[in-house]
Amino acid sequence: MTITRFAPSPTGYLHIGNFRAALMNYLMSHKLGGTFILRIDDTDAERSKEEYVEATKEDLRWLGITWDRIERQSHRLGHYDAAADRLREKGLLYECFETPTELDLKRKKQLNMGKPPVYDRAALALSDAEKGALREERGQGHWRFKLDHTRIEWADGILGNISIDASSLSDPVLIRGDGQYLYTLASVVDDVEMGITHVVRGSDHVTNTATQIQMMDALEGTVPTFAHHSLLTGPQGEGLSKRFGSLSLRDMRKEGIVPAALISLMARLGSSQPVELQTELDAVADGFEVSHFGSAPTKFDKQDLFPLTARYLQNLPLKAVAKSVLAAGVPEDYAKPFWMVVRDNITTLNDLSDWWTLCCEGAEPEISDEDREFVSQALALLPDGPFTGDSWGNWTQAVKEVTERKGKSLFMPLRKALTGKSHGPDMSALLPLLQVIKAKR
Length: 441
Prior knowledge:
The protein is an alpha/beta fold and 441 residues long. The protein has 18 helices and twelve strands. The protein starts with a strand and ends in an 11-residue tail after the last helix.
């Protein structure tokens, strides 16, 4: 069975970058009828917040992404204790005492000498007495995994065959001096014990993958199939950061972007397949192939989500949006005609209130000097309401006969006079909605 996972840290709101990884892992397992695990990486008790755990679950549910089970790494500390003990017994976990400042000086010295800035394993030469003295002076040390300095190779689902010389890597820190288990150890133990078969994540994790493969072998676990997708950049190629609040899913939802737009774009962005609006997750999953994605940095522009949102809304019946229509202030008896008129002229549901305000209060007329007299004549010919579907045609025909205007020079000034806009819904359908006010003459 295919088993995938999404392992967010609950230190902030779900961001477009980590959502991409969540979606890919979900689609892979969903397509093959496998298991998708939501695994909360909350071993950092100080930075992890329960509000972000709940926010992540809320965002995923909003998108229609469900999980087969949820795991909390903070509930699995005993498993990490046992794994650490096994690695110590094998001589693969050793205690170090360098301060951050000392490590930084070592890195700078190595770089000045033209050497790779990797940890020099000085701690392996410490005697028990020296370790004891350092503990008294500095407290408990941090623990590193001792890499086997061979080549680490795997067939990546996106990048192809990867080969990394382990001697070019620092032995990774697995346990901090305060006893906190870091991402690398917790992730490896969980992947092994949960039987994860496939891991899709960003290409910034390639080096992590190399060290994790050795750790999985040391723990006698099965190594998943890894695939590293390209990193997202901004529209101009600039880097993205989860600190950019506008790129959180929560903020996008507030802006009116719909789940179908997000999923349709992110399921294809960076792949050889064109972006197509899909309204069903099953259809998205059926067409998903991780091998179709490339390694080049992928530009993400939030603005691309708005046309997809607009296209999605255009096909919705009133029932699907009734709550939003009524919330915009539209009376129930006007809801259906209002929605049918404006749905092709909104980008998000947030635009509904502006259109209803136009219907209720009118708009500031946009009339050029050359059209002012014409508009005045035309408005004098506008009959009292209520208006029907024929009112626009009858009125413009009467205006045409009196003024001898036709075509764009006839219709555009009248549209601008009534709506203040040069484009919008079919005026034959919109005019009956304007009967709720007294037409401005």
